[in-house]
Design brief:
Elements: E1 3-5, E2 8-10, H1 13-39, H2 41-48, H3 54-86, H4 88-106, H5 112-115, H6 117-134, H7 138-148, H8 154-192, H9 194-212, H10 218-225, H11 233-240, H12 242-272, H13 278-306, H14 308-330, H15 335-361, H16 369-385, H17 388-399, H18 405-422
Antiparallel strand pairs: 1-2
Length: 433
């Protein structure tokens, strides 16, 4: 049975759990695949690039990581438009197949020592395919869950997207940690790094199976049945919802920089710049990401009770005030201190993420929600998030200040803080049609 609240169908709790599981597990698979590259960036740099200096190899590796983000806007344009024209479910099934396939192939690639520069070229191609597919994932999953969730619980349900994403990074980082502990650095450098990528194959099929058994969201079906879908949703999003696009970009600046700093840059930063052992670096990152995953649903619940803006502003303020001190604490060389610093930064990103997914979806009408969110989200992530690991290493190399990446995080947080201040509160309101 279902009831109508404010002219909007609300599915039963059982159906909601099924939708949440299928969407979340698929999202987990996507970001397990996508995040492995960042976690293993230092090893990948040594395997695929000819560089005597590990720092130069790491820069090259992060440059390829950023190349994948170049394709995200293109993927967002393609899959976002498709999702608004043919439905969310079909597109979400397609993107998981592409991403997991590209990740699996990455585990089979020959190295520089085997075929020379051709190895780096093949690595770039697989990253471009992976990035293109990822362009349709986060915006699509957020849109789908927002359109299923009850009005009063939308923040809680949509924030599980971030929870599953962080859990994917925990699983990837944890797996790398266990493999490194079991195999040792030598075996991990030689062949052990391939194992996590190869696992992407079977995981992808699981996610595909779950998503193929979903139906489209009630919001999208209502718009489709009324004949109000847009034939050119991307053009409609730019012309009719340009204000929403700008606000969404502003929201995503901190989300992109914060996520990719903690998830991707931090393991290499701890090992390369702060001289923790690789094993300890993976352990610190894994603990921090796990704590974030636990905190995010609670923050989503709070955003439903107290509004999106208070949570998002608190997260921004935390990064502005404490990013630099947190990096200084990490540099003490003590594992416990580094974990505590990661937990502090993690609390800020959890507060922000708990409200942000719902806030982004609530900006757009249903007819252009997937496409509009895809445009704003992926362009912001590509420009700000994709360069985060590379730019952070460049800052350290150029300035000689190992804490200089904090200034980039603080700048991103300030941009988002000012954007959120000007945004309207949307918690508790029906989605736009």
């Amino acid at each position: 049975m279902s009831t109508i609240i404010k002219d909007r169908p609300i599915s039963t709790d059982r159906k909601l759990r099924k939708v949440l599981l299928a969407t979340g597990v698929g999202h987990f698979v996507e970001w397990f695949d996508f995040g492995l590259y960042g976690t293993l960036a230092a090893i990948i740099g040594l395997q695929f690039f000819h560089a005597g200096d590990p720092g130069v190899a790491l820069l090259s590796s992060f440059a390829v990581f950023g190349a994948g983000f170049i394709m995200r806007p293109l993927g967002g344009l393609y899959f976002g438009s498709l999702g608004d024209r043919v439905g969310r479910q079909k597109v979400l099934a397609t993107v998981i197949l592409l991403t997991s396939g590209a990740t699996f192939v990455m585990g089979l690639l020959p190295t520089y020592h085997q075929i020379g520069i051709g190895a780096a070229i093949l690595l770039v191609i697989t990253r471009l395919i992976q990035g293109f597919a990822a362009g349709g994932e986060s915006s699509g999953a957020t849109t789908y869950l927002a359109e299923y969730a009850p009005v009063a619980r939308r923040g809680y349900f949509t924030c599980w997207i971030d929870n599953f994403g962080f859990m994917a990074f925990v699983a990837g980082s944890g797996l790398v940690f266990l493999l490194t502990a079991f195999l040792g650095d030598s075996a991990m450098n030689d062949w052990g790094w391939r194992i996590p990528f190869l696992i992407a194959g079977p995981l992808g099929w699981i996610g595909l199976y779950l998503r193929q058994h979903l139906e489209d969201s009630p919001e999208y079906r209502a718009v489709a049945e009324s004949g109000k879908t847009e034939s050119a949703p991307l053009r409609a999003a730019v012309t009719k919802a340009w204000g929403a696009l700008l606000f969404c970009v502003g929201f995503v600046v901190l989300k992109a920089v914060g996520h990719w700093t903690l998830q991707t840059f931090m393991p290499s930063y701890l090992a390369t710049e702060l001289h923790f052992s690789r094993l300890n670096a993976y352990a610190i990152t894994t603990i921090g990401l796990f704590a974030i995953a636990i905190m995010v649903p609670f923050m989503g619940y709070l955003s439903d009770r107290f509004g999106r803006k208070p949570l998002m502003l608190a997260g921004c303020a935390g990064f502005i005030l404490f990013s630099y001190p947190a990096m200084m604490v990490m540099a003490q060389g003590d594992v416990l201190s580094a974990v505590l610093a990661m937990l502090m930064l993690g609390a800020f990103i959890a507060a922000f993420d708990g409200a942000c997914s719902a806030a982004m979806a609530e900006l757009f009408p249903t007819s252009v929600r997937y496409g509009g969110l895809s445009i704003a989200y992926n362009f912001a992530v590509a420009f700000f998030g994709g360069i985060t690991p590379w730019f952070s290493v460049w800052l350290i190399t150029t300035t000689g200040d190992k804490f200089s990446p904090a200034w980039y995080i603080m700048g991103a947080a300030l941009i988002t803080f000012l954007t959120v201040l000007r945004a309207k509160e949307t918690a508790g309101q029906p989605l736009k049609r």
